[in-house]
UniProtKB/TrEMBL annotation:
Leader peptide range in chain numbering: 1-18
Keyword Hydrolase: yes
Source species of the chain: Luteimonas rhizosphaericola
One Pfam family from the record: Peptidase_M48
Cofactor: Zn(2+)
Lineage: Bacteria, Pseudomonadati, Pseudomonadota, Gammaproteobacteria, Lysobacterales
Name of the protein described by the UniProt record: M48 family metallopeptidase
InterPro entries hit by this protein: Mito/Outer_Membr_Metalloprot, Peptidase_M48
Amino acid sequence: MKHAFAMLVIVASLAACATTTSSTGRTQYVGAVSQEQLNQLGAQAFTEAKQKGPLSTNSGQNAYVRCVVNALVQQLPGDQRAMAWESAVFAVDEPNAYALPGGKVGINTGLFKVAKDQDQLAAVVAHEIGHVVERHHDERITRQMGAAGAVQLLGAVAGDYGQLATQGGSMLAQTGFLLPGSRVQETEADVVGQRMMAQAGFDPRAAVGLWQNMIAAGGSRPPQWLSTHPDPQSRISELQARATQLVPTYEQARAAGRRPACR
């Protein structure tokens, strides 16, 4: 009975998968888990991260990050804007940031050393929010579940359901939240994030300086979270080209009163 249940869970999950199109026009394969489940997983991961800490108790840093996040979130569609967005600042020297399904944003204090102003910080935060709004976590989980489906079914039939459940939970955490995205996803998050920051009234040209700072800070070995990102020089060229195209959007946002004053 338990073997049949395991197979039903996996088959039902994979059968629910579907194709969709991202805002950049890219076809995605998603739906192995529901958005509600994704949000719950994101909230759980965020809670665990905050419990592990260490959290920054600097009120200025926390207010600064909240201000940037809130300004960017205001440019999202209504359903995404309505999520329970929250941020946390971690007292960790490594320059890192992430956003999770359900609207959870984490920033390491080490990022302030390379993100020199609010526009550069917005470039990072917008990129990470781009992963969430473009359903990249969903896409990674769906892809991994599809690839592992046959192996999981064999495990269920063999009577190892307990191990299967444990491995499945670990796989979701690793693939959905802990591992970096593919280069395609990283490029898409760049496109979406730079557009978002311009719409929010942050200077899209700051994204170029931010990534130059990140590369310089990493020396010959860039930070681990950049390991699957596009070639640095190609990326900077693309950011520069998009920034030129987005300057009118930025100027329109400023003229409309969207003038963030976070720091």
